[in-house]
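User: Second chain of the day. Same drill as before.
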Amino acid sequence: MNSRERVRAVISRRVPDVIPTDMWGSASRIHNDLYFDLLSKLGIEDEGELIRPSALTSYENYTLSDMLGCDFRHINIRKPDGFQGRTDADGIVYDEWGVGRDVSAGYPTIARFPLADALTEGDIRAYRWPTMRDEGRIRGLREKAQAWHEGTDKAITATAANSGMFFELGQFLRGPEQFFMDLALNEKLVRALFDKLTDLFIELNLYYLEPVAPYLEWVEFTSDLGTQNGPFFSKGMFDAFFKESFRRIFSEIKRRHPHLKIMLHSCGGVYDFIPGFIEVGVDILNPIQPRAHGMDPARIKSEFGDALVFHGAIDIQGAMRGSIEEVREEVRLRFSQMGGGGGYVISPNNHLLTDVPAENVIEMYRYAKEIGRY
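Assistant: Same format as last time:
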C-alpha cells in the first residue's frame, strides 16, 4: 500500500499493511526550538514553511516528516484579506473576533474579552462578527491540494479552520469565569451565543472546504473539553448546550461532502463525552491522552473501536520525555492496545515541546514503522 491507500484503509477500519503515522496536523506540531534541533540532527537545510508566525509551533516541513516516514499532507486555512490586525495603546493585540491578547511576556495571554458586558441575546446579535467568506482564507489552497494529490501518494487532510470552537471562543469572548457562570445561570445568552457561533463555523468551514474537499480524507476540529482529571463540565451540560451545535456543523459538512470524515481533537479526560461525540458525527478521535482520567486506550478501543478511528495516544507527558527504550515500549504498547483490526493512526498525543529530546522523536516514528506491520 502507498500512504493514501494505507490511511484510507485505516479510516474505514480495515487493516493496512503498516500503521500510518502523522505530523503537522492540528495537534501534532513541534515547538520551534525542538524543530530546529531536529533539522540539525537530521542534516536538513530546508527550514520549511512558516505557517503560524505568532505561535511557538510555527513551522511545517514535509522534508522532515517524509524523512521520518509520515503518511500525510495537511491543508491550512489562510488569513483573511479583510482583517489586518490592530494593537492598542497598551500593546494589546486584537484578533478578528475582537479578542485582545497581551504578548509582552513573549507568550499571548488574553486580556480583553469583548462580550464580557453582554446582557441579552440582542447584545450577541448586535456584535460585529468577522467575515467568514473572505478570499484570503482560501487563496491558493485548491492548487496546493491538487498538486499534492497528483504529485504525491500522501493522504491529505484539512486542519482546523479555527483554533477552538464554542467552548474556547465562549471563554475568549465572555471571559472564563463569566462563561462558566453563563452555562449554569444564563441559558438564553449561552444559546444565543452558541447559535451565532455555530452559524459562523458552518459558513467558515463550507467556504474553506469548497475548493479542496475533492482531495481530502478528513477535516479537523479542535475543542478541548477535558482536564487532566476529567471533563470541564458535566455530561448533562454537554448534552444540553454542546451536542446540537456539533451536530449541526458536522452534518452540514457531511451533507455537502459525504466522503469526508470528521476528526475531533479534544484534550484531557473526555471519556464521558465519547458516546456523544459518536452521536453527533465524529469519525476520528484525537488525542487519546493516556495519563488523563478515564482515557485508558485499551478500554476506549474495546468500547468504541467499532464506531471510531483513533489518532494519537503516544504519551508526551512521560514516555516521550524518557529514554529511547521507554519510547519503544510506548509505541509497542499503544500499537497493541489500539492497532488491532486497523482504525489507528500513530502520533504524539499533542504538540511536541522542548522537554522531548529530538532523538526520541526520530525513534518514535522510525520504530512505529518497524513494529507496526500487520
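The mean pLDDT is 97.

User: Great, on to the next one.
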